[in-house]
Amino acid sequence: MKKYAKFGILIAIIVGSIAWVATASIQSSKTYYVTIAELTKMGQQASSKRVRVGGDIQEHSIVRTGNTVRFNLVQESKTLPVVYEGRDPLPDTFKDGAQALAGGRLDDSGVFHAQEVQAKCASKYAPKPGMAPEGLQKKIVNKV
Q1: Average pLDDT of the segment spanning 4-29
Q2: Three-state DSSP class for 90?
Q3: Residue ranges of the alpha helices (H) in the chain?
């Protein structure tokens, strides 16, 4: 019985260690999505937790200096200054007016330091409101 008890204890230690590592890695990679208004209301939690905040890139706010990119996110009437110093290059869709999602932390001065930035430009791929896609417009015109 002693042999089985030692084996059981060893298995329990291994399984416990794996569960602890898995739980710790999940907690560290957890990211909350918030609006700019919610971010400003978070107070000290915004600097201690990793959060993702989204908005539109303000026109003429993108400033590139070496590996650092500064820009403003706008959501409703709120503006958030963002500094990106990540290793990954920014996507091609990162342009004025595009929708962006930045992941990082807010510092004490109100500047959001992003480690990752995702951008999309839905207006580039979607037809204008009330308009059919270009290929479909030609078919409609030819039928009339």
Answers
A1: 83
A2: coil
A3: 2-29, 36-41, 45-48, 122-125, 134-143
Kindly report the number of other CB atoms within 10 A of residue 117's CB atom: 21
135 within domain boundaries:
no
**Domains of the chain: total:** 2
The domain of 74 spans 32-125
Q: pLDDT exceeding 70 applies to what percent of the chain?
A: 78
Number of other residues whose CB lies within 10 A of the CB of residue 83: 17
In a domain, 137, yes or no: no
Is the domain of 11 the same as that of 39?
no
Q: Would the pLDDT of 90 be above 90? A: no
Closest CA to 113 of 85, 94, 73: 85
Nearest Cα neighbor of 52 from 73, 24, 68 is 73
Confidence of residue 139 (pLDDT cuts 50, 70, 90): very low
Sign of CA dihedral 10, 12, 15, 20: negative
Q: Are residues 60 and 121 in the same domain?
A: yes
Beta bridge partners of 114: 84, 104
- Based on the fold, state whether residues 14 and 49 are members of the same structural domain: no
